[in-house]
Design goal:
Strand order of the largest sheet: 1-2-4-3
Structural class: alpha/beta
Number of helices: 8
Number of domains: 1
Largest sheet: 4 strands, mixed
Shape: globular
Strand content: 5-15%
Distance between the termini: 33 Å
Number of strands: 4
Helix content: 40-55%
Amino acid sequence: MRTYLLILALMGLAACNIAPAPITPSAPPATSDTPRLPPAVAVANFEEVVARVEPVAESVCRRETPRQNCDFVIAVERDLRAGVNAFQTLDKNGRPFLVFTLGLIAEARNIDELAFVMGHEAAHHIEQHIPQQRQSAREGAFVLGTLAQMGGASQSGIREAVEIGAFVGARRFSQDHELEADRLGTIIAIRAGFDPVRGSAFFERLPDPGDQFLGSHPPNAARQAIVRNTAAQFGRRN
């Protein structure tokens, strides 16, 4: 089992039968008034999270989806213009990358927030959300493109319909995917010995997307609720 910590410059873009580690003692969740951690502490926390969460995520991945690549690469985007963000992507060979910006590492006010985010991003790969999103985008592009063609649209009109269909298709299940990743990410964080309920307080310091039509993310309250409910099933109640 290998873990890689890389520095990148971005060009654009089930039941888990794993014995849980001892839970880190809980502390009050961070708020907007909680000061940022010193840089050295933030980096040390991130390194500890990588060391503890990646093996659990890999084990869950191999157990749940043994046919896909489960050799996670943990990467850091050091361009400060990338803001506060983390995401999961695949290289050309299908190897999963979990990418964290320096802004997110600096913004996390405790180690549980980093652990929850890492579990969430790993869960996107385990749940195979990227191939599902791509398939949904293809279907949306085909349907709207075909309707535009049948309606006598021009070539530019058909192209526009294809682009709109792909966008709508890609967004079709995005909120469901986020909640699925929150649920499995909660389990991964618990298995690694972290407190995901405390970690999900990170949402409270982010803008709430609300109930936007075709929004990519569900309301923050819905996300925190699924974390609490999932954690309660494992005896974690905050």
